[in-house]
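Appendix C: a fully annotated inverse folding record. The material below is reproduced so that readers can follow the format used throughout the book. The structure is listed first as tokens, followed by the designed sequence.
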């Protein structure tokens, strides 16, 4: 009889283990996984325009650094043609005596971001981008990157359009490469 009871207990335990997880156990696992994924997204900064704006600012600072190096190495003059919604890279062609775009289109900022620039302490009114046919006009860049290693002294701001949005500053005195800084209440704190 003890053997028979043991067999029944073993069978009932085996059949219970074969049934799998209960609905409550599955829901607890899903809640835990959802919480962990939410924390991971928030910690990496994927959620929100502030991270994207910082990436745009770092991209622009990196582009300026590469163009400054290329200008010295190739003994060519480069420039950035800025407009309210983005920018375009130009190279001076001494044979044609004009600035020429290196690519077909300007780099456009996200719709919620805006760009402004000061040259020699004076704010520039940036034009709206136009859909001109290629070669229709002789564009003149606002920022110059010269073969001598000098840059135009500038203060360039990338902002979120909303009032309390992130404001980033890139600036150069004409000799050093720009770094990305967070601007708050007229004061810029180093970030980089």
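Designed amino acids, in order:
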């Amino acid at each position: 009889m003890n053997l028979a009871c043991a067999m029944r207990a073993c069978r009932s335990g085996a059949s219970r283990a074969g049934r799998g997880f209960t609905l409550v156990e599955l829901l607890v696992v899903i809640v835990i996984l959802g919480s962990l994924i939410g924390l991971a997204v928030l910690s990496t900064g994927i959620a929100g325009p502030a991270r994207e704006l910082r990436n745009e600012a770092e991209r622009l600072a990196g582009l300026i650094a590469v163009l400054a190096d290329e200008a010295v190495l190739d003994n060519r003059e480069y420039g950035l043609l800025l407009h309210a919604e983005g920018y375009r890279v130009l190279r001076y062609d001494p044979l044609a005596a004009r600035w020429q775009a290196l690519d077909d289109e300007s780099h456009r900022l996200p719709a919620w971001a805006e760009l402004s620039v000061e040259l020699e302490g004076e704010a520039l009114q940036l034009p709206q981008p136009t859909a001109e046919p290629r070669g229709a006009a002789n564009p003149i860049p606002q920022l110059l990157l010269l073969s001598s290693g000098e840059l135009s002294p500038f203060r360039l701001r990338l902002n979120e359009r909303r009032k309390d949005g992130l404001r980033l500053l890139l600036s150069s005195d004409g000799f050093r490469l720009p770094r990305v800084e967070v601007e708050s209440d007229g004061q810029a704190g180093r970030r980089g």
